[in-house]
Amino acid sequence: MEANRSDMIINGSGSFGGGTFKKVKVNGDATIQGDVMCDVLKVLGIGLIKGVTTADVFSVWGQIELNGTTDFKKASILGMAELNGNTVMSKAKITGQCVVNGNAEIEENKLLGSLEIKGDYKGNSATIKGELAVEGNVEVESFNSSGRFKIDGLLNGEEISINPRFASSFAKEIGGEKITICRKAEISLPFTSQGRVETEAIEGNEIYLEYTVAKVVRGTNIEIGPGCEIDLVECSGTYQVDETSVVKEKKNLGL
Amino acid sequence: MSNELISKKDLLNLTGISYGQLYRWKRKDLIPEDWFIRKSTYTGQETFFPKAEILERIAKIQTMKENVSLDELADIFSPGGTSCKLNKEELLATGLVSETVIQYYLANATVYQDVFEFNNVMVMYVLEKLLQSGDISLDEGKMIIQLFQDYYLAAQAKKIVLIVIRKMGISSCVIAEKTDVLQFESNTKIVANVDFAQISEELRLKM
Fold it and tell me: Do B19 and A175 touch (CB under 8 A)?
């Protein structure tokens, strides 16, 4: 970027054009009509950017709506962000609430708050401790959840590890190399609901399941732990099942 | 191209790959999303693939993955532009397009560039094929160049086909999405039907 960029700090309320800045800080109530490109975009008040937004650091304490596509190196959302276009983030930490009305590519995602994606979600690692809702498919290398998720499409990952400790989760299909659904209680709290995972199909090489409801589980080595209800297991390697689980039918797959 | 389908289970049995590998390749975009065809069967939902295409693709991945990383493979299989740029000499050296076709392309393409991008090369490669085989005339070639000049950028990201038709000596050409169903009038002759995803893959392997 050019050297002679200035800061834009909005304290009152008003409407502005876009541009290239070092730092954009919204303290009041701002509407920005054009594209914004900056090093730091910090929102403490209320903001609306109508164009494309590109920032190295994006941090939201207040509330912001971004109408164009967005590209952030580092995003931290403590307030509320609504992204109406597709978004690319290298690193995201969401403690507040974030809605993406498009596709999201988030390389490294730490989710403590809530994230809602209307399209597909792609990335490298996802750590879910809050709540994730995706209407499309999820494709990540490592998926780690101890929160709640609802995925209407396929959850596809190299390593998927789900801990349904408090809340129940749903994915239409789960597929990957290693899938572990294991209810670990780090501290046993009274009055917390015990969660489960519901899905239509689970397919993977190494599968370990607890407290899972599934129509089909297919894979090489399958171990069914306590509390599962599975209609059909198709297995080509080792197979074990806990006595508290119900497996209606089991088939061997010759490979 | 046959429309025969193969179920996921049969596919894994036949090729010896695991679920993990299949899902990994899908994540890396080595297998396009629209090849996953979901159908309900008596055992519930099952996934099917177009048999001929998926078997060919898997065979290619299996032979190539020894030498090439998965990310590089993804580049080969993805349709549409890469950052490849060639000048005329370099292009001639690849032997993919003859000098006649390059001259012809330069004479008819309204935007002249010193360097050819992948898309230009792709159009020339298609022209080379069609002209060599005698499927189309030089005039029809001009029409194709013009069509791609006007519309290819818009259609770039999608999986497209080029169809050349002729009726009573009058010819025309269209760019359509691969999955579209096109219905032609009864006396129309389809002169050429070129799948650009396939061409792009072919080219990338040869370049």
Answer: yes
φ/ψ bin of B199: left (φ > 0), alpha (ψ from -120 to 50), beta (otherwise): alpha
Q: Could A178 and B20 be called an inter-chain contact, meaning their C-beta atoms sit closer than 8 Å? A: yes
Give the CA distances from residue B137 to residues B99, B127, B154, in Å, rounded to whole numbers and listed in that order: 17, 10, 26
Evaluate if pTM is beyond 0.90: no
Which of B15, B18, B29, B37 is the best mutation test for A, with the most CBs of A within 10 A? B18
Please list the ranges in chain B whose pLDDT falls under 70. 1-2, 43-44, 78-85, 110-114, 152-158, 207
8 Å CB contact between A104 and A140: no
Instruction: Please tell me the distance in Å from A211's CA to the nearest CA on chain B.
Output: 21
More confident site: B152 or A159: A159
Entry field: residues in chain B: 207
Q: How many residues does chain A have?
A: 255
Instruction: Tell me how crowded residue B156 is: count the other CB atoms within 10 A of its CB.
Output: 13
For B22-50, how does the pLDDT look when each residue is reduced to its tens digit (9 = 90+)? 999 998 888 888 788 888 777 667 888 98
ipTM value, please give it.
0.84
Tokens 């000049």: give the residue. B149
Residue A133, class by beta-carbon neighbours within 10 Å (0-12 exposed, 13-18 middle, 19+ buried)? Answer: middle
d(CA B130, CA B141) in angstroms, rounded, equals: 8
